[in-house]
Design a protein that fits this description.
This protein has 6 helices and 16 strands. The protein is an alpha+beta fold. The strands form 2 sheets. The chain has an 8-stranded mixed β-sheet, with helices on one face. The structure holds fe (ii) ion (FE2).
Amino acid sequence: MNNVSISTLRSIEYSVPDLTKTSRFYEKIWKLEPVAQENGALYFRATGSEHHCVVLHMGATAGVKKINFGAKDKKTVDAIYQRLRGLKIHVSKAPAPLLTPGGGYGFSFRDPDGIEYEVASDVIQHKQSYMSNDRPFKLSHVVINSDRISQQTEWFCDALGFKLSDQTEIMNFIRCSSDHHSIALARSNGVSLNHTAWEMPDFNALMTGVGRLRHCGFEVDWGVGRHGPGNNIFSYFREPNGLVVEYTAEVEQVGEDYKAGTPEEWATRRRKNEMWGNADLPSTSMRKSMHGNLVPPKVEF
Ligand SMILES: [Fe+2]
């Protein structure tokens, strides 16, 4: 990785039309914990040390509002800022102390597809972090749809120091840490959020989370299975707005020497759509939701 690089995926911000219902899902069902409330936005943490992993804003339609990355220190934030300016990426404000919950030092920008990001260092970390047997400990990855995934992949690597981990016929997986991927770019007709994934401490915690969701009336849209690229166990659901969320576990840890697999290699390694050959095809509703036509689940909770 070049030395101008982000080092972690911190959080995602959504706009949602029903703040009350959505926050009830993320707290009571998905099992995040409210940590702050400011200017009408609601902040939730997982059990890990990151100050918050989800921010909910009131908005006319549901979708991604912003994706937030972490950098090692202020010097790195400044270096990324200079790098983006050199690439003629529009950055409205220079890095500065952040006034949002968790604070830190950073700035915001948009990628060539128009999605907004923030990169920050020195965000407050929770002293009390722990692993729970049924709750996620961090935001694991975000998958973004694009009709130009090759160019977007190159941009992430060039501008932000990401590295290509694997390619399939439909997705490019890129990393900014030892996690196999923190971002993936999915081939689609346009730009939208495909899904977010939340890491559980282990398989048992993932299955306990799946059991809770099912008990509360949420159907499993895909899974339980094991992905090829990343080797992570997965189970997919739609949250109340129809946005797709994944519980994942056992994400592969990779080093600098990891050799990226090609679409042809992955096509022969997998049984059906995943490694075990256990999971049926993803539900039609989930596939629609993943490509921007959100289908909310029919469930009262
Ligand atoms: Fe995923």
